[in-house]
Amino acid sequence: MRALAILNPNATTTSSRTRDVVLAALSSDLDLEVAETTHRGHAAELSRQARRDGVGLVVAVGGDGTVNEVANGVLDPASPATTVPDVAIIPGGSTNVLARNLGIPESPVEATGLFLDAWRSGRRQRIGLGRLDGRYFTFAAGFGFDADVIRAVEDQRERGRTSTVPLYVRTAVRRFFQQPERRHGSIELVADDGEPVGQLSVVIVTNCTPWTYLGARPLRPTPNADFHGGLDVFGLAGLRLARTLWHVGQMATRRGPRGRDVVSLHDSGHMVLTTDEPQPVQVDGDYIGDRTRVEIAAAPAALRVAY
Predict the structure, then answer these.
(1) Which of 40, 83, 217, 301 could form a disulfide with 126 if both were Cys (CB 3.0 to 4.6 A apart)?
(2) What is the rounded average pLDDT of the residues 184-207?
(3) In which domain, by residue range, is 58 found?
C-alpha cells in the first residue's frame, strides 16, 4: 500500500528521535513516502496531491492543525480522483483533541502501534465532520470570544511563545476583560431553519466531545456530541464575569453548561451565524479570519480513520 506521512517539524511534543522511530515502524508495513510541512496550508496541499496520485493512506504526524489540513486535503471535492485515502493520526501537538477523543494514545510510539494493529487487521472507522464555509473541521469550530482567544494566542506564538495551557488561560483572562461589550453579544444563530437566537457572545459548534482539554481535564460545552450524529452547539448570551466563570466550571462536568443565558442544540444539520460587526472565526483551534456571516453544516461519515 502506498502511503504518505506528513510531518509537522514544529510539532510541540515530537522530537526528531521519536519521529525516526515512528517512521521506521511505519515503513515496515507500508510503501512509505515522507514529506515535511514548510508553511501553513502545506499539509492540505500535500494531501490533495496524494489523493490525485492514488495514494491509499495519509498519515498525519503532528497536532490538530496538521490533522485538519490533511482532512481537508484528502476530502477536497475539486480533486479529480474518486477514491479518498484513509487517514491515520500520530499525535504530536500540544492538545491533540481529535486523537484523544478517538482514544488514540498521546504517545506517538504507542499511537503508531495502535495504527499498525488496525492496518494489519483492516480496522477502520468512519467519523462525521463539520464544514464551515466549505472548510472541514474535525472536532470544533467557533465564532466570537473563543476564536478571539485563539487569534491572540497565535499572535504570541508568532512572536516565539510556546503553546501551553498557562498561555491559553492567561490570554483568555486578558481578552475577556478587553471585550468591548460583555453584557450581551452581537451574534445571531439560526439552526435548521428554526427561530433566530440573538445577542450571543460566543458560539461553539462540535461533532464530538470533549471540546478541548486543559491539561488532563476535559471541557464539555456540548456533552452529547457524537462523531456519528449531527452537530451540537453551545452558545452564551453575554460574558458577565460570575456567570461566565460558572459556565466554564460546568464545562468540566459531564452534564455541561446550563442556564437561561446558555443555548444548547443537539444533532443539528445546518446553521447560519451572522453579526453586524466582523467576529473572529476558528476551526480546530486555528484562527481563519474575521467574518460577519458563516454557514456551518454536518458532514456525516466523511472521513475514514485507521486506528
Answers:
(1) 301
(2) 97
(3) 2-123
